[in-house]
Specification:
This protein is mainly α. The protein has one domain (3-95). It contains three helices and no strands. Helix 2 runs antiparallel to helix 3 (80-95). The longest helix has 46 residues, at 32-77. The chain is rod-shaped and about 70 Å long.
């Protein structure tokens, strides 16, 4: 997962948490407008978080496929080093999908 993707995931998590707090405070004091704003902010944060996770997983899939291709080319040209590098990229891609 890239730094920017991780940053967006963290921002989403923070925004979601802040929204839930605002929603709870609004409910506790009987302020329905505040409660609704909090609910909307929590939903926006959750959407940002989920989007960042999806982007990270897609990037991992791409890296995995590129690693497989690199390994296949390495095998075709008889390059053990390229095969190893391809396998390493494939495994990094799989790890980034978690």
């Amino acid at each position: 997962m890239s730094k920017e993707t991780k940053k967006q995931e963290i921002k989403g998590s923070i925004e979601k948490g802040a929204g839930k707090v605002k929603q709870a405070v609004g409910g506790a004091v009987g302020n329905t407008k505040m409660e609704a704003e909090g609910k909307a902010k929590a939903a926006k944060g959750e959407a940002r978080q989920e989007t960042a996770e999806a982007v990270g997983k897609a990037g991992g899939k791409i890296q995995e496929a590129a690693g497989k291709a690199q390994g296949a080319v390495g095998e075709a040209v008889g390059s053990k080093a390229m095969q190893k590098k391809g396998k390493a990229n494939e495994l990094k891609g799989k790890a980034n999908q978690v």
